[in-house]
Every structure is written in structure tokens, then in C-alpha cells.
Predict the 3D structure of the following.
Amino acid sequence: MSSEATMLERCQSKCELCAAEAPLTAFAVPPHSHVTVDYAIMVCDKCLGEIEDPQDINHWRCLNDSMWSQVPAVQVTAWRQLTRLNSETWAQDALDIMYMEEDQMNWAMTGMSADDKPFDCNGVELKKGDDVTVIKDLPVKGTNQVIKQGTVIRGISIGNDPKLVSGKANGGQSMYVIAEFTRKK
Ligand SMILES: [Zn+2]
């Protein structure tokens, strides 16, 4: 069976992001560029057109459902789109409760565009070595720990994904946080 036929069976001929029963196209989730069952998703024209540049914000509320997909490529796409939409409260809430395996998280982060820079909640550019304060309680993915609002992370590093900064909180373990949920000290 071809990749597309396998994927059409997986999604039951519904868009894997918004569940529309419409003509579907296979989309290879970056950085992958070839359509394979593991690294591609089936999407409708509406989703395809906005997949890296969401315009119709209400349409993308569909991610509240599709983020729970069992398909890693769908999870990765949903996480990226929610991250792009995280000026919306509902998208932030979704990101807070979304769970992804570490492999998927790494995939999701490496596929985001790499040429913008991290900015804090006030739009101040963050640089390596800065100290930041976490501005809201953030769950640590895959654990029941929470990084408390007000936690100071000293001497941050900037990774491949400009939306994230990493560093040690309270001298403890190293962690990643979304740059927009921090404030530069
Ligand atoms: Zn769709």
C-alpha cells in the first residue's frame, strides 16, 4: 500500500488537523521533505494554506482536539501551530496541558524557523547569559512538576529553537522554557 493510502486509512479520509471531510493533501512535516507515513500528515486545503502562517485564528481552535492525536507528526504540527498562536489564551492553555515525548518535542523544535530570535514577554530580545524570571507557572513536560511563577533562571542558553531558552533554576536541573513566558531581569 502506498504511503498516502496508508495515511488515508489512518485519518479515515478526514483532515488530521481540523477533521474536515474534504480533499486531502499529504504534507511532509519539516524538516522532513518527503512524504512517508511516519513524517507526514493528511490535511485539507484550508489547513495546508495556513500550516506555517495561521490567519483564521478561530479555525485553528481545531487544534484543541487534534493535539491529542496518537500520530507523532500530527502532535508536532499541532504544537508548532499552537506556539505560533500563543498570543491567544486558549492556545497557551492548550500548550500548557499538551504532552509530547522528548523525541517529538525535539522534532517540533528543530522544524520551527530558526532565523528569528528569542524575545521575552515584553518583546525584549534575550541573549545567552541573561537571567530571566518565569512569569507564570509552567508544567514540566512529562512530569508532574511545575516551574513556579517567579522562578529565576540564571545564565540562559539559546538553542536551535528561538522560542525556547534553557538554563538552571535555583541551581537545580537544566530546563527549557518558552521565551515569551519569561521576563529579562
Ligand atoms: Zn483541515
